[in-house]
Amino acid sequence: QDSSDDIEDVSLFDADDDVSRRSKKSKIRHPVASFFHLFFRVSAIVVYLLCELLTSSFIACMVTIILLLSCDFWAVKNVTGRLMVGLRWWNQVDDDGRSHWVFEARKVSTQGGKTSSEAESRIFWLGLITCPMIWVIFAFSALFSFKVKWLAVVVMGVVLQGANLYGYIRCKVGSRKNLTSMATNYLGKQFLRQTMATEDQAAS
């Protein structure tokens, strides 16, 4: 009865690669993906805030919000993450019933032609982090204001958008072991640079 999930890293995401940083541009290469990355999740929030003004039907509002949240979950998980930041994640169950998290990262091209732009990366992570926080605020608001009928809707928003946030954070940093090795490599690079700079100054 081991409840811990096995983690499989298809490829690591090197967030500190200097070559990839130099090759990144501020140009938005996938405007359609960037638009729909924010459209569904922002639309769900707007409908939640204005539904009582637009219609008196709670069922219509609930179905619309859940439909928007579902479209957002699928689009972010399968399309916008892959195009905008080169990341993808999914969970699969093997024949033994054990759950495996699979994380995939686009390998950085040596020619810099396949790297994602910094503008798209900002849009992706800003939308991915901000919207779940807003749904958490809605959940506390519905709970303290005793709006029980809305609680299921906001919990659905927290779960769906929180799942994508969790998946992409794990996809970016990998397991704890990988995160430790990334930090060690980064500190090693910084120490080497400082040593080289000190030697250059001493030589000059």
Automatic annotation (TrEMBL):
A GO cellular component annotation in the UniProt record: Golgi membrane
Main subcellular location of this protein, as a coarse class: membrane
Transmembrane portions of the chain: 31-50, 56-76, 123-144, 150-169
Topology term for the membrane: Multi-pass membrane protein
Keywords noted in UniProt: Membrane, Transmembrane, Transmembrane helix
Name by which UniProt lists this protein: Golgi apparatus membrane protein TVP23 homolog
Family: Belongs to the TVP23 family.
Pfam family, one: DUF846
Domain of life: Eukaryota
InterPro entries, sorted: TVP23-like
Localisation per UniProt entry: Membrane
GO BP terms: protein secretion; vesicle-mediated transport
